[in-house]
Design goal:
The complex is a heterodimer of chains A (135) and B (206).
Chain A (H helix, E strand, L loop, with lengths): L12 H13 L7 H16 L6 H18 L34 H4 L12 H11 L2
Chain B lengths: L8 E7 L5 E7 L8 H23 L4 H17 L10 H31 L13 H12 L3 H12 L4 H8 L3 H18 L1 H5 L7
Antiparallel strand pairs in B: 1-2
The chains are: A mainly alpha (135), B mainly alpha (206).
């Protein structure tokens, strides 16, 4: 950078001396050549790294937030039933086995002939049952 | 400017196998044939020392902090080169980044020191082997830290680093009159704070 002498602010001799002493006592030691090489290499290594987009940290934060929320409150992510529909929840245990259901009649256990003389049947039905089942 | 010494031979120091430093002469291509990286390397080589010295004075005489600030400023300047407009010189633009980076560093250091004092009950001291009396250096750094940001930047840029008022005004993005006012007040405060240094006429300013 070019500096013109007349662009410097006017200073009296005492101020000049004071500033000269400040400069003398407030100056770092110059970089050693070895240190300069180390700094240069570190700078170029950093500059050659691929540029990360500014969105990456934000996206990563959002993703981590969703996972944490899902682990903390799993209910947040289950679909809500519509108004009026019953809430159905299925509890699954690790040892649950797929069941197969079959309708079994009582006479299959006893070996007896199939008959129904239940008193709760109306009379008409009982007559029909006697005709068709007992012969 | 960065292109000033393009056709000369540049001396490159490379670390030798025995741990010593050996010098190798490398002929540079003409500036017009250089790519962006080569030109920026040239720029870094010619401005590293002054940038580090400026940062060192702004962050209060801390070597490690000054190196961090300088590296970060070079990094940001390189990444933002496509946004650089020819309104100011590249050097002015770069030193603007250095000054801003040093300010950010000081701000974060204040936060870190506050937390460190809160948790550990003590604040970390910056250690830095530099020329001169370390005690006096610390006093100067403390006196500079008492100035406002603008006063400190103006004083360091003009009186300690030798920038002209116009250049400092461009760097600080302030009118020249304002910079002169900051300089006057900063000098008054420092002469009052470091009265013994102001009165000392022992001629140790070499």
């Amino acid at each position: 950078m070019t500096r013109l002498r007349d662009e410097q602010p006017q200073r009296d001799s005492e101020a000049e001396q004071f500033i000269a002493r400040l400069v003398a006592h407030y100056t770092p030691t110059p970089l050693t050549p070895t240190r300069r090489v180390v700094l240069d290499e570190a700078l170029w290594a950093r500059l050659q790294r691929p540029r990360r987009t500014k969105l990456m940290p934000a996206l990563a934060t959002v993703a981590v937030g969703i996972v944490v929320a899902w682990l903390s409150f799993p209910g947040l992510f289950t679909p809500m039933p519509r108004r009026g529909e019953p809430r159905v929840s299925v509890v699954e245990t690790p040892n649950s086995v797929q069941w197969e259901y079959e309708i079994i009649s009582p006479h299959e256990f006893t070996g007896a002939a199939e008959r129904d003389d239940s008193p709760i049947l109306p009379d008409d039905y009982r007559v029909i049952a006697q005709v068709f089942l007992d012969g | 400017m960065m292109v000033a010494s393009a056709s000369r031979q540049q001396t490159v120091e490379a670390q030798g196998e025995g741990g010593g430093v050996e010098e190798t002469a490398v002929r540079e291509p003409p500036v017009a044939e250089m790519d962006l990286e080569q030109r920026f390397r040239l720029f870094v080589g010619s401005h590293r020392e002054q940038a580090r010295r400026l940062a060192w004075r702004l962050v209060g005489g801390d070597d490690a902090a000054a190196e961090d600030v300088t590296q970060e400023a070079f990094f940001k300047a390189y990444r933002a080169l496509d946004r650089f407009r020819e309104e100011a010189s590249l050097a002015t633009w770069f030193y603007q980044i250095v000054v801003r980076q040093a300010h950010n560093y000081c701000r974060w250091r204040t936060v870190r020191q506050t937390w460190s004092a809160f948790w550990n009950g003590r604040t970390p001291e910056a250690s830095s082997p530099a020329a001169g009396d370390p005690l006096l250096r610390r006093r100067i750094a403390k006196a500079l830290a008492q100035l406002s940001r603008s006063q400190k930047e103006a004083f360091v840029l003009v009186h300690l680093e030798g920038f002209s008022v116009r250049e400092a005004a461009a760097l600080m993005e302030k009118p020249e009159g304002t910079v002169k006012s900051h300089l006057h007040r900063a000098l008054q405060t420092l002469r009052r704070e470091l009265a013994d240094l102001a009165e000392d006429t022992g001629g140790d300013a070499t």
